[in-house]
Write a structure and sequence with these properties.
The chain has 244 residues and is mostly helical. It is built from 9 helices and no strands. It is elongated.
C-alpha cells in the first residue's frame, strides 16, 4: 500500500512540471483569429483617418505623434492641379513639356485639312461625289482606252554579220603585240589613232579589219605592229573563256 502511495505522489509531481501544449488554433497575441481580424481592421481605419488609438493625430509612416497637428481633407491643392496642366496655366512650367489646358471652357484644337492628302479611302468623301453611274462611266472610259497590240514576227537576219572574231581568236596562237604579219611601215601613229577613232569598240574594228583582207593586209593602217589584231583588240579573253 505504501509503495502505491509513493508512486502516485511521483506521478502528480511530474504532471505539475510538464509544459502545456499551445493551442495552434488561437491567434498570435489574441484569443482567436476572429478577434485578430477585428483589431487589424480597426488599426487600418485609424491609420487612414490619421488618428491614434487614443484619438490624437499621428504620422502613419513613422508611427509617432507629429510635432504639429495636421488636418487631412483628401483634396488636391490647386497648385498641384495647375502644375499638371489642369485648371489653368502652371506657375512653374515643366521643362520640355507644354501644359495641357483640360478645362471645359478650352476649345478643342482645330483640324487643318491638307489638300495634298488623298481622300479616296474616306467613304463619306467618295460617296459625296461619286455614284454607281459615275463609276460605270469611268469603267467604260477605261475599257475604251484599252488597246490590244497584235504581236509581230521577229525580224529576220540574213546571217551576214561580218567575220567571226571569236572563231578567229581561237584559231590564232600568237599573243597581242607579237609581230606575225609583215607591214611596210607606211602607217604612222597619227593614221592609226585617226582611223581607230572611227570604230565604237575594238571588236568592231577587228571585224572590219578582217573584212578588208586582214590579217594579211592592213589597208587602213590599224594594225601597224603586224600582230593581226586591229586597234588594240585582244584575243586573250576569248581564249580564256574557251579554255585555250
Amino acid at each position: 500500500m505504501k509503495k502505491y502511495l509513493i508512486l502516485g505522489m511521483a506521478c502528480a509531481t511530474l504532471a505539475n512540471c510538464a509544459q502545456p501544449v499551445p493551442d495552434s488554433g488561437a491567434g498570435v497575441g489574441f484569443g482567436d483569429y476572429a478577434q485578430y481580424e477585428v483589431e487589424r481592421a480597426r488599426r487600418e481605419a485609424l491609420l487612414q483617418s490619421g488618428t491614434s488609438p487614443a484619438g490624437a493625430p499621428m504620422d502613419a509612416t513613422a508611427g509617432v505623434l507629429p510635432s504639429a497637428p495636421a488636418v487631412s481633407t483628401g483634396a488636391i491643392a490647386s497648385t498641384e492641379l495647375a502644375a499638371a496642366g489642369i485648371g489653368g496655366q502652371a506657375t512653374a512650367p515643366v521643362i520640355g513639356r507644354a501644359g495641357l489646358d483640360a478645362t471645359p471652357g478650352n476649345a478643342p484644337p482645330v483640324i487643318v485639312e491638307s489638300a495634298g492628302i488623298s481622300d479616296e479611302q474616306s467613304f463619306d468623301a467618295v460617296a459625296g461625289r461619286e455614284s454607281i453611274q459615275s463609276d460605270a462611266d469611268r469603267r467604260a472610259a477605261q475599257a475604251a482606252a484599252y488597246e490590244v497590240i497584235a504581236p509581230t514576227a521577229v525580224p529576220t537576219r540574213d546571217g551576214n554579220v561580218g567575220p567571226n572574231i571569236v572563231q578567229y581568236a581561237l584559231q590564232t596562237t600568237n599573243a597581242k603585240g607579237v609581230e606575225t604579219y609583215r607591214r611596210l611601215g607606211l602607217s604612222g601613229q597619227s593614221r592609226f589613232q585617226r582611223n581607230c577613232a572611227d570604230y565604237r569598240s575594238p571588236d568592231e574594228a577587228q571585224r572590219d579589219f578582217l573584212s578588208r583582207g586582214g590579217p594579211n593586209r592592213d589597208t587602213r593602217g590599224i594594225d601597224p605592229d603586224g600582230d593581226g589584231f586591229a586597234c588594240g583588240w585582244d584575243p586573250a579573253p576569248f581564249r580564256l573563256a574557251a579554255g585555250n
